[in-house]
Amino acid sequence: MSSEQQKTVDLTTLSAQQLADVKSQLEQELEHLSQSFQKLRAAQSKFKECIGTIVKTFQGENKGKSILVPLTSSLYVPGVIEDVETVMVDIGTGYYIEKKPKDAIAFYENKVSTLQKNLVDLETIVNGKMGNLRMVEEILRQKVMSSAPNVA
Amino acid sequence: MADAATQSAYEKLTEEFRNTQSDLSSFIEARQKLESQLQENKIVQKEFSILDDHSKIYKLIGPVLIPQDKGEAVMNVDKRLEFIESEIKRIEGQINDTRAKSDKKRAELISFQAQLQEKARS
């Protein structure tokens, strides 16, 4: 990426080899960006799940009800919901904060909307890159076609 | 034909160029890691700033959650941010140095190649 300075280059002046290089670089960037996109999506749905869980579980009527607490994904122990007023939220870097369910929901909703904004931004970038890639491919095709008769 | 001396000089130059390239990519990787740590810590800092004084803060140490004083936690995160920022500055200096070095090596390589071709032709 270091060699690609922010200069405008007329794509038609590049050789087929250079175009192929540009194309593979664009493809790599696209790959990376769409991976990030998927990761953001996954994170967003995780936070949404948190909101759903709080809404469903932390209601006054659920106080005193018994639940099964997952210790691992396949091992459960019985428990009782004693407190529907506080939840513990992981805010990152190992810090956890006790919050009211209402505040925790606001916290997660904030996260979801931030991620949504990032997703939209990322999508514009991906679309731009895809346009670039299409253009490079088109010019490359023209190059190859116009040079083919000479070779034959 | 290139003689053995120029051949080995050429190989040495290529090797050096490759080394600076791999240094560069490892520095860039470190820079990216620091950036994600910076973002995470900033989020925590922001979260602390909107916290009221009586909310309980815990820190996960190994498998246990330790209750923490808010002032102490805030101080910790601030300190960590400071550290990460200075690290980023340091790494960026290294990236710039290495990039300059690698560009120089690349230029050397190209002129060497040109020389070799010149020799081969004559």
TrEMBL record, chain A:
Record flagged with keyword Transferase: no
CDD domains documented for this protein: Prefoldin_5
Alphabetically ordered keywords of this record: Chaperone, Coiled coil
GO MF term (any one): unfolded protein binding
One GO CC term, this protein: cell division site
Any Gene Ontology biological process: protein folding
A Pfam family per the record: Prefoldin
Coiled coil: 16-43
Family, as annotated: Belongs to the prefoldin subunit alpha family.
Protein name: Prefoldin, alpha subunit
Species this protein is from: Lipomyces starkeyi NRRL Y-11557
TrEMBL record, chain B:
Keyword Chaperone: yes
Keywords on record: Chaperone, Coiled coil
GO cellular component terms listed in the entry, alphabetical order: cytoplasm; prefoldin complex
Gene Ontology molecular functions: protein-folding chaperone binding; unfolded protein binding
Record-given protein name: Prefoldin subunit 6
Superkingdom: Eukaryota
A Gene Ontology BP annotation from the UniProt entry: chaperone-mediated protein complex assembly
Coiled-coil portions: 74-108
Pfam families referenced in this protein's UniProt entry, alphabetically: Prefoldin_2 (PF01920)
PANTHER family reported in the protein's UniProt record: PREFOLDIN SUBUNIT 6 (PTHR21431)
Family: Belongs to the prefoldin subunit beta family.
Keyword Chaperone: yes
Organism, as annotated: Lipomyces starkeyi NRRL Y-11557
